[in-house]
Every structure is written in C-alpha cells, then in structure tokens.
Amino acid sequence: MLTPISKAADFLCISGSAYISKSIVFRDSSMFTHIDGLVGLLGLTLPFLTFRLTKVYQPFRNDSGFGSVIRALVAWLFAQLILVAISQPYPDVDPRNRWLLWWTAIAFCALVVGRCAIHALPTMLRSWRFAPTRVAIVAPRGAKPDLLARIALQTRNAFVPQVIFDPFLPSNTAVDQIPVVREMNALKQVMRAEKLREIWIINPPFQPISVEHLFETFRNDFVNIRVLPVLEGSTLAESVVDIYRGVPVLNVIATPERGWDTLPKEIFDRIFALFVLLAISPILLAISVAVKLSSPGPIFFRQYRKGMNGNVFSIYKFRTMYQGADKPGTVVQARKGDARVTRVGRILRSTSLDELPQFFNVMKGEMSVVGPRPHAVEHDEYYKNLVQHYMFRYRIKPGITGWAQVNGYRGETVEIEKMEARVRFDMHYIQHWTFWLDIKIIALTVANGFTGSSAY
C-alpha cells in the first residue's frame, strides 16, 4: 500500500521543487526557453529510472527508513548529474545550471522530509480504523515465492499476511519473511498469539475445497473465513477479484479497471507528445519534403487500425511505399528488399521515423506513447484465430512503442511464433502496467535507438 504513496510523494517532491526553483531563477518567464522545458521534462522522468536501478522502491516490510532515504538521495543526485551533463551543450547554460542547482538542493531536502513521513505512516495507520487487516493465509500446495505478490495484486494491499498454512509442505519454512507452517496446531497458536481474526483460503476458481477442518478448529473463535480465488496457469487472470460499480465480481476476462491510476499516463501522453512534436518539427518538415520528392503521392499514409476495445481509428504514418502499391482490401507486410518501398521510405522504415506522425494520434487520444503496437485490421482478422489472447491486446490503448518492441519484437512478423512472442510481451505489459514501466520503455526505446534488423 505504501509503495504507490511513496512514488506519488517522490514525484510531488521532485516536480514541486522544479517549479519552485524555476520561479527563483527565471523570474522573467521569457528567459525560460523550450530547451529548458525539455530539460525539465527529462528531469521529471530520469530520476525514476535511477530509483529503479538503485532499488529505492522495496517492500516496506524489508526496508528501513534510513536506507530508503539514502538510496533515494543517491539516485536523485545521480539523475541530476546526468541531467546537467546532457544540458551543457545547449545555449544559455548559465541560468539553466543555476536552476538545476536550486532544483537539486530543494528536492534533496523535500525527499528527506517526504520519505521520513512515508515511513512514519505505518505507525499511524495501525491506530486508524482503515489500517490493512492482518490475515492468515491457507494455501494448499500454493506457498510459492510469488504467492504474496499475487495476493497483494488481487487485494490491493488491503490485507497483510502474517502466517501461511500449507499442509503439503515437508517442513516449516518462510516466504518473504512470513512464517509458513504445515500443522494446524501451529497455525492455531500463531493466530491466537497474533490475535488474527481473518483466514483467507487461496483456491483456484471453480474447484471445490474442503473447509470442515478449519470450521472445526476455529468453531469457538471469532474468526472470519474467506476464499480468495486465484487462477493458476492463466496468462490473463492476475487480478480476478474486484468491485465493479459497487458489485463484487470474479473477473475471468475483463478490460483492466485502473481508474485514477491511469490519470498520470493520460496527462503524460499529451504533454510528452506535444513536447516531441514541437521539438522535432524541423525533422517532420524535412521528412515531408523528402517523401514528396521521392515519388508521386501524398506525404502521409493513413491506415485503419483498432484501438482500445476494438474501436477503429485512422493511424498516421509517413508514406514509405509507391502510391497504389497495395491492392484495395489487402495488406501485405513489407519484406527485406520489398520493391514497393521507395528509397526514402526504406530509410524511414529502418529508423522508424515513419512512425513519428503517430504523436498526432496520441494528441487526439486514439493512441498512447507506450502500449501494444496496433496492427492493420486485415492482420487482426488473420491472427485473431491463430494466436491465443491476440485480441486482448486491444483492451488498452495501442502505443507508438511497447514492451514487445524494446525486447526485439518489432517489424515483420511472418512466423506465427514471432507473433505469439509479441503477444506474450504485450500481455505482460497489460498485467504489470505502471506509469514507471512506461518511463522505462521510453528510455529503452531511446537508448536502443530506432533501428532494428527486422524493420524494413
């Protein structure tokens, strides 16, 4: 529960410090250039990459306040050093350096205060009525290392496991510093010693379980016994228990409901797309001229793609093929040495520069900066019956780049195995999405470059 709060607090500390220091240095707003704006945007995203590298966001159960503060400060200073180095070649560096110095100092103090306050929260929460409920977990043949992660994902950290009971274990052990016992008497002793009033049974849905032994053991104790369904071996069901419009439901397959969690993504998409379009406007103009001179036809190529929940939209790309290269109603993937591709188009496709106009789709809300890559509608019709969970990719907004692309799956996907691998990466992204995962994918896209052996 505290990790998302910690991330939000860190972002507020860093962004608030950026604004305060900007007000101190750039009293005349006309002195603040678009280069400064891009540096500021990078300065808001870069720290969370260094935070991940230094493992700032560890489970609070295993972390100390002092260690957390030190790691956050080291990661912050490292990010600012990188930012200073990047900003040096650009003009008007003196006021920018003063801004970064003030930003570093103010955020340094804010992060110390914020992290100390976050680590003081558990003590306060224990005395409040909405504190996370401490529970005992009954997991027949289920006490695996990822058990607690799955429980936290499904219960939104509303429950804190204190003991795990698995009668099929050969001996007592521990999972993430939580004791795992194999005897009912041991479970009963722990529950009474810790004054636990909740038992959660981890059970695959639609499979009956026997709970008579629990009833018998705790018949005289005021203990609540509940069942938490967990779908094992499914690529779709990592979060199956939910409240939908006030009604408790078991999600077997459903569009991810993240509510306010996606607000940072929506805001970031628009701001990032606007900054990119402004920054690369000369490049867009140069490419437009090159495309126009390369062969007769329009500058932009528009093609129907499916967006979130299958809604069809028109995607923008620079034209890379000769006009009329494709027959109406058919789409053939470009291959190496494809005669339909112009000389300029071959360069654009190999560097992915033909994708840049899709930032206009992001501004329109049809796409996200990061998400599963949308395919031509004709390709969707072909693959949807060949690749399992293929259409689930469209439960969220498609993206310009994605988890599959930074892992090497971009460009042509002739073999079914390649498309299956791409879908697996897309499914992983949908299930494990966070705002910071988006930042990581953007950073990897930039770091790895826009070229690839399978893009032509």
SSE layout and pairings?
Layout: H1 2-25, H2 34-53, H3 65-87, H4 93-125, E1 133-138, H5 147-155, E2 159-165, E3 173-175, E4 178-181, H6 184-194, E5 198-203, H7 212-217, E6 224-229, E7 241-244, E8 247-250, H8 263-279, H9 281-294, E9 300-306, E10 312-318, H10 343-351, H11 358-363, E11 368-370, H12 377-383, E12 399-401, H13 403-406, H14 416-431, H15 435-448
Parallel strand pairs: 1-2, 1-5, 2-4, 5-6, 11-12
Antiparallel strand pairs: 3-4, 7-8, 9-10
Helix pairs in contact: 1-4, 2-3, 2-15, 3-4
Could you explain the architecture of this structure?
The chain crosses the membrane at residues 31-53, 65-87, 99-121, 271-291. The chain has 456 residues and is an alpha/beta fold. The protein has helices at residues 2-25, 34-53, 65-87, 93-125, 147-155, 184-194, 212-217, 263-279, 281-294, 343-351, 358-363, 377-383, 403-406, 416-431, 435-448; strands spanning 133-138, 159-165, 173-175, 178-181, 198-203, 224-229, 241-244, 247-250, 300-306, 312-318, 368-370, 399-401. Mean pLDDT is 80; it is low at 126-130 and 233-237. Helices cover 47% and strands 13% of the residues.
